[in-house]
Amino acid sequence: MGKGKILLTGAAGYIGSHTWVELSQAGYDVVGVDNFYNSERDVIDRIGKILGKPVTFEEADCSDLKAFGKVFEKHPDIVGAVHFAACKAVGESIDKPLLYYRNNIVSLLNLISLMTEKGKKANIVFSSSCTVYGQPDKEHLPIAEDAPLKRSLSPYGKSKQMAEEILSDSVIAFPHLKVCALRYFNPIGAHPSALIGELPRGVPQNLVPFVTQTAAGIRDHLNVFGNDYNTPDGSCIRDYIYVVDLAKAHVKAIDKLLSDGCGNDAQVIDEPTYVEAAKTGRWFVFNLGTGKGLSVLELVNGFMKATGVNLPYEIAPRRQGDIEQVWADPRKAERELGWKADTPIEDVLRSAWEWQKTL
Ligand code: NAD
Ligand code: WQD
Asked: What is the pTM assigned to this prediction?
């Protein structure tokens, strides 16, 4: 007898696939949903291979209410959902805003309607992003959940801000709905089996896939975007979090939402943007990061040290729109979810390299 049936949307994607493994290993029955917009079908078999058992998967587009609704008809015993399905490329979102708003917002609206329509208890964990903070003022670093949210510059970032607003309004409107918004910092690395990992299409925009592809000789060098920032070595600082640690946080979030003790008045109301939602005791926001900032140059050197592989790089001009430095204060997640990202960065970078070698 499992711990309950959990719907994972975007289950074949990078973070979804790792979360599927962790939820299943923690005793949940997972129903994966994806339309393979940005993932490959064989990821489903690979997840089965890691778990050593058949998996339950339904191909559907979450922005298609009818098709998505059929998943709920087939699985009326779903008790919670983790909602990853979304488009996620910041640059692309500026060129294709309607795609981003349609896919990211309509999918979420459909999920909330389908989860709440029968008046049953509904638990949703939502993939939010540190992008909602923009460039934090120095006095807010490391950044905690009660730091001000800044208007995002990209449709992608705005879709995450809107999604949080929609969810917090819904918590007020639907008395049986509980929501946990998880603000991820920079997820990197791959599963230790090297069977699943990040699969960027075309030229990677994110740092670590570009690093591993350069190390593999697919790209001739890495451009380090700027060494004249106001940081110790001049390159930008981020909080890189191991994707498996991140996946484990989703298990803790689902555990919290499903536990009877959740939703009492003990929850501290510390998110000024969402005071009304927080007052319900059914709205939670957590930063998921390591609490340590790493510069681009530190990551590059760390990669070479951890793998013994040479990484040709050049200093290039700043990338437009880049944030100078941001890293998380993850203590709320540690306190209230009992979760901490503790995999050493060398191991994380090695896992990314092991995965790259299989591609
Ligand atoms: P990903 O692209 O690897 O995974 C997303 C998955 O959702 C893909 O498999 C895609 O095919 C699927 N999908 C997209 N639209 C869909 C739809 N309408 N119906 C069904 N499936 C659909 O991305 P990821 O890196 O795993 O990100 C997962 C979530 O986490 C996203 O919501 C993303 O915005 C968020 N996030 C990611 C990062 C990051 O750096 N990777 C950081 C913060 C937040
Ligand atoms: C990291 C650092 C670059 C590539 C993005 C999204 C954000 C969130 C996380 C989803 C930066 C530098 C990069 C390269 C480089 N995603 N870099 N050379 O920009 O922190 O955030 O992912 O919610 O919304 O914007 O991640 O991996 O692109 O960059 O020097 O070839 O690496 O300048 O300092 P970023 P990233």
From this structure: 0.97
